[in-house]
Each structure stands twice: as structure tokens, then as C-alpha cells.
Write a structure and sequence with these properties.
alpha/beta; Transcription Regulator spoIIAA
Length: 209
């Protein structure tokens, strides 16, 4: 398994050691990357403390527990999980290889309790399970099932679209418009949600060609 260098970035500061977790990658990849980087400098990190900051979303309680178990059992390290501050600068390496311009490609599954945020347009290769949430400034393209909550067009407004291979979201909002419950039917073919006449309409992709 090839482990991306920017899945986990370790940074030492006067406040201690920080680990920035790039949630563009799957949790399995992040965990492997963390283990590899700690193993490379095990003598330095052993017995210490690491502060974890998630970039591009949130970890679930289960994922934080998995990280804590790895730290304690293999490296005798304690961990703290901190939210990313709005004005906090993150290592530039975190943005390398995950997208270009205002588009970003993410390969992961968004499970219940997880969230993923991006200021531009997002291409997700994976499912959005019930209880999962995605917020994007522009449009969202899901190569998988969309069954969680989606907030698109937070920057572009009603010009955004949402496309998914299969669609039955818990909530779908584009700009200021919310999909009415009576129109939220299960769709098992590629579908496109867009704002039309001040309401969200969903069409089969083939009908728009």
C-alpha cells in the first residue's frame, strides 16, 4: 500500500508536537501514515504527547479511539484532539496532490458522525452514509451513494449543482434552497440536483444530455 506523504503532517512548535490529519484520504490511509511516521522517529516521540488537528472534516469518536489505542499500545504516547481554528495556518503540504484550482478529489466514505468541508467544488469517490455531512462552497459530484446531509453552493449560491450515482439524501440544500421532502425520492441512477424556478429539482442525468 502506497502511503501519501501528506496524509499526516507532523510539526513541532513551542506549544508541542502537532499532527495534522488530511481527511481527504481514507481513515485507514491516515492511520497507516501516522504509524509509519512515528515509527521512523520512535525514540523521539516515545512517552510524549501529540496534539491532533483534523483538516477538511471531523473524526468520529471511534476513529479518535483507534488513534489513541495505536499511540498508547505501540508508542506509549498520549494524544489530544483539538478543533482547527478558523484563522489557523496549516502546512502547505496538506493541499498538495488533493486537487487543483477550486476542485478537489477525495477518495473516502463519509460515515455517520463524519463531516467533510471544502470551499470550492468537490468530487467524492465513495458513499455518504446517513448521518454523514458534506459542505462545499460550490458543486458536489458523488461517485457513489448520497444518503447523508449535503450543503452545496455555500459560496456560489443557487448556481451550484449536486450530482450522485445514487441519491436519497437526508437533507439537500443548494444555496438558500432546501429540497422539499415530497420530492426526495430514492433514485438509483445518476441524477442531477439543481435550482430551477426557486426550488430544487432532480433530473436523471441522461435527460439533461
Amino acid at each position: 500500500m502506497r502511503i501519501p506523504k501528506n496524509a499526516v503532517i507532523l510539526k513541532g512548535t513551542k506549544e508541542g508536537v502537532f499532527a495534522y490529519l488530511n481527511l481527504s484520504y481514507s481513515f485507514r490511509t491516515i492511520l497507516k501514515a501516522l504509524e509509519k511516521k512515528l515509527s521512523e522517529r520512535e525514540e523521539f516521540f516515545r512517552g510524549g504527547n501529540i496534539k491532533f488537528i483534523s483538516v477538511g472534516g471531523d473524526l468520529t469518536d471511534e476513529e479518535m479511539e483507534d488513534i489513541s489505542i495505536l499511540l498508547k499500545n505501540k508508542f506509549d504516547i498520549s494524544g489530544e484532539f483539538q478543533p482547527k481554528k478558523k484563522d489557523e495556518k496549516i502546512p502547505e503540504a496538506l493541499s498538495e496532490g488533493t486537487g487543483s484550482g477550486d476542485f478537489k478529489v477525495v477518495r473516502r466514505k463519509i460515515r455517520s458522525g463524519q463531516s467533510l468541508h471544502f470551499k470550492g467544488n468537490l468530487i467524492l469517490i465513495g458513499d455518504v452514509n446517513p448521518g454523514g455531512e458534506i459542505r462545499v462552497g460550490g458543486s458536489l459530484f458523488v461517485f457513489g451513494s448520497l444518503r447523508g446531509r449535503v450543503f452545496a453552493g455555500e459560496t456560489t449560491g443557487e448556481n451550484a449543482i449536486v450530482v450522485a450515482s445514487r441519491m436519497k439524501p437526508e437533507r439537500l440544500q443548494i444555496g438558500d434552497f432546501v429540497l422539499e421532502s415530497e420530492n426526495n425520492k430514492r433514485r438509483d441512477t445518476i441524477s442531477v440536483a439543481l435550482v430551477e424556478n426557486e426550488e430544487i429539482k432532480i433530473y436523471p442525468y441522461k435527460n439533461l444530455l
